[in-house]
Amino acid sequence: MALMMGFLGAMALDILADAPGPALLIGTVVITTAAYEFFDMCRKRGMAPLVVPGSVAAALAFNLPWLTSRYPGVNDQSALLAALVIVAFVGMVCRGSRPNALTDIAVTIFGAVYIGLLGGYLVHIHLLDEGARLVVYFVVVAKVSDIGGYLAGKLAGKHKLAPTISPNKTIEGSLGGLALSVVAAFAMSFLLPKPFPAGWKVLFAVLVSIAAQFGDLCESIIKRSCGVKDSAVFLPKVCGAFDLIDSVLISAPVGFYLIAAVMQAKG
């Protein structure tokens, strides 16, 4: 929660400065930490990913939209992915022959792409007109889905949503998350740079909430596979960075394309 408040505070500074400064820095720290936590969970399962190269690659992937916009000569994701594959193989060759080398390479590449590349869609949103406001709008709509799901699940949860993945999640909680996201989409509409249709706000809230809940389930699968309950490394028993952004990673691309479609249509 402290990380989220810090990020939103940084976004407020970005709105005032009209430039991706503090938020990009904090976002990079959060993404790098989340990647490190992901690789640490994999190590607890006996895997041996390249933690430092993978975490650095995730940070670069997160910043790639900004770098591409600022330096047109910088290539797209293909260059980063190619470099990551080569670095992963170099690292494994330096380690010597290992029975699970292929798994370690795959986990390294997956972690960087999953956390860095998907997280980078927050930067894509920021690069739109009035992007700082749009990022805050998106993050609030996505994260209140978690809050609505938790409260509705506690109060009225009876039917399990995905019992083998996340036993505590319920269908009633999922619907509560959808409902609160719709409320937030209208309540926070003052952040939108242009009048957006009411139907778009409902569609945005529903699709972002569904994607956010799916993202939470995705992280639950990873944690169950690794045999851990939370991702926190630096502050045990406190919400880790990976736990904080799990719902945002999957929903950020959804949010970006929905926002970009309306911005281009109105442009």
Layout of strands and helices, then pairs:
Layout lengths: L1 H16 L4 H23 L6 H20 L6 H19 L5 H19 L1 H6 L4 H26 L3 E3 L3 E5 H17 L10 H29 L14 H26 L1
Antiparallel strand pairs: 1-2
Explain the overall architecture.
With 267 residues, the protein is mainly alpha-helical. The chain has one domain. Helices cover 75% and strands 3% of the residues. A two-stranded antiparallel sheet has the order 1-2. A hairpin with a 3-residue loop joins β1 and β2. The mean pLDDT is 85.
- Main beta sheet strand tally, sense and closure: 2 strands, antiparallel
Q: Into which percent range does the helicity of residues fall?
A: over 70%
What is the number of domains?
1
Q: CA-to-CA gap between the ends?
A: 35 Å
Write down how many β-strands occur, each being a DSSP E stretch of 2 or more residues.
2
Mean pLDDT: 85
List unreliable stretches of 5+ residues. Answer: none
Order of helices and strands: HHHHHHHEEHHH
Q: Which structural class do you get from the secondary structure elements?
A: mainly alpha
Radius of gyration: 19 Å
Strand content: under 5%
Helix tally equals 10
Indicate the overall shape. Answer: flat
Strand order of the largest sheet: 1-2
